[in-house]
Amino acid sequence: MREIVLATKNLSKNYNNFTALQNINMEIKQGEIYGLVGKNGAGKTTLLRLITGQAYGTEGDISLFGATSNADLNKQRKRNGAIIDMLPYR
User: Fold this and answer.
1) Which of 23, 43, 58, 80 has the highest local Cβ count within 10 Å?
2) What is the pLDDT along the chain (90 residues), one digit of tens a residue?
3) Are the C-beta atoms of residues 34 and 66 closer than 8 Å to each other?
4) Cβ neighbours of 21 (radius 10 Å)
5) What radius of gyration, in Å, describes the C-alpha atoms of the chain?
6) Residues of the domain holding 71
7) Helix, strand, or coil (residue 18)
8) Does residue 85 lie within any of the structural domains?
Protein backbone atom coordinates (compact mmCIF):
# COMPACT_ATOMS: atom_id res chain seq x y z
CA MET A 1 0.00 0.00 0.00
CA ARG A 2 1.36 3.41 -0.99
CA GLU A 3 1.87 6.11 1.64
CA ILE A 4 -0.41 9.16 1.54
CA VAL A 5 1.96 12.04 0.83
CA LEU A 6 -0.57 14.89 0.96
CA ALA A 7 -4.09 15.05 2.33
CA THR A 8 -6.40 17.99 2.89
CA LYS A 9 -9.69 17.86 4.75
CA ASN A 10 -12.24 20.69 4.44
CA LEU A 11 -9.41 23.14 3.74
CA SER A 12 -10.65 26.71 3.33
CA LYS A 13 -9.02 30.12 3.05
CA ASN A 14 -10.76 33.46 3.43
CA TYR A 15 -9.26 36.90 2.87
CA ASN A 16 -11.53 39.35 4.73
CA ASN A 17 -14.89 38.86 2.94
CA PHE A 18 -13.44 36.90 -0.04
CA THR A 19 -13.41 33.09 -0.04
CA ALA A 20 -10.35 31.90 -2.02
CA LEU A 21 -10.81 28.19 -1.21
CA GLN A 22 -13.76 26.35 0.27
CA ASN A 23 -13.76 22.80 1.69
CA ILE A 24 -10.96 21.30 -0.42
CA ASN A 25 -10.61 17.55 0.17
CA MET A 26 -7.87 15.63 -1.59
CA GLU A 27 -5.44 12.75 -1.13
CA ILE A 28 -2.26 12.19 -3.11
CA LYS A 29 -0.42 8.92 -2.65
CA GLN A 30 3.26 8.27 -3.22
CA GLY A 31 4.06 8.02 -6.94
CA GLU A 32 0.92 9.81 -8.13
CA ILE A 33 1.18 12.93 -10.26
CA TYR A 34 -1.42 15.69 -10.19
CA GLY A 35 -1.84 18.95 -12.04
CA LEU A 36 -3.87 21.93 -10.89
CA VAL A 37 -5.94 23.34 -13.71
CA GLY A 38 -8.37 26.22 -13.46
CA LYS A 39 -9.20 29.76 -14.46
CA ASN A 40 -7.45 32.79 -12.99
CA GLY A 41 -8.69 33.27 -9.44
CA ALA A 42 -9.76 29.65 -9.00
CA GLY A 43 -7.48 29.18 -5.96
CA LYS A 44 -4.59 27.17 -7.44
CA THR A 45 -1.87 29.44 -6.05
CA THR A 46 -3.66 29.80 -2.72
CA LEU A 47 -3.77 26.01 -2.34
CA LEU A 48 -0.05 25.71 -3.10
CA ARG A 49 0.73 28.48 -0.60
CA LEU A 50 -1.19 26.63 2.11
CA ILE A 51 0.57 23.35 1.35
CA THR A 52 4.02 24.96 1.37
CA GLY A 53 3.40 26.98 4.53
CA GLN A 54 3.54 30.40 2.85
CA ALA A 55 -0.02 31.03 4.12
CA TYR A 56 -2.32 29.40 6.64
CA GLY A 57 -5.82 28.10 6.14
CA THR A 58 -8.86 29.64 7.76
CA GLU A 59 -10.40 26.21 8.37
CA GLY A 60 -9.59 22.57 7.75
CA ASP A 61 -6.49 20.41 7.96
CA ILE A 62 -3.39 19.56 5.96
CA SER A 63 -1.36 16.38 6.36
CA LEU A 64 2.09 15.88 4.77
CA PHE A 65 3.57 12.40 5.09
CA GLY A 66 1.24 11.89 8.07
CA ALA A 67 2.33 15.06 9.90
CA THR A 68 -0.42 17.44 11.01
CA SER A 69 1.01 19.72 13.72
CA ASN A 70 2.65 22.97 12.60
CA ALA A 71 6.11 21.90 13.80
CA ASP A 72 5.87 18.48 12.12
CA LEU A 73 4.41 19.97 8.93
CA ASN A 74 7.37 22.35 8.68
CA LYS A 75 9.78 19.42 9.00
CA GLN A 76 7.97 17.52 6.25
CA ARG A 77 7.81 20.59 4.00
CA LYS A 78 11.59 20.34 3.71
CA ARG A 79 11.03 17.17 1.66
CA ASN A 80 9.20 19.17 -1.05
CA GLY A 81 10.06 22.00 -3.37
CA ALA A 82 7.92 24.65 -5.04
CA ILE A 83 8.34 27.91 -6.91
CA ILE A 84 5.18 29.98 -6.66
CA ASP A 85 4.49 33.30 -8.43
CA MET A 86 7.96 33.69 -9.79
CA LEU A 87 8.54 37.24 -11.04
CA PRO A 88 9.26 37.67 -14.76
CA TYR A 89 12.91 37.81 -15.77
CA ARG A 90 14.14 41.30 -16.68
Assistant:
1) 43
2) 889 999 999 999 999 999 999 999 999 999 999 999 999 889 999 999 999 999 999 999 999 999 999 999 999 999 888 888 655 665
3) no
4) 20
5) 14
6) 4-77
7) strand
8) no
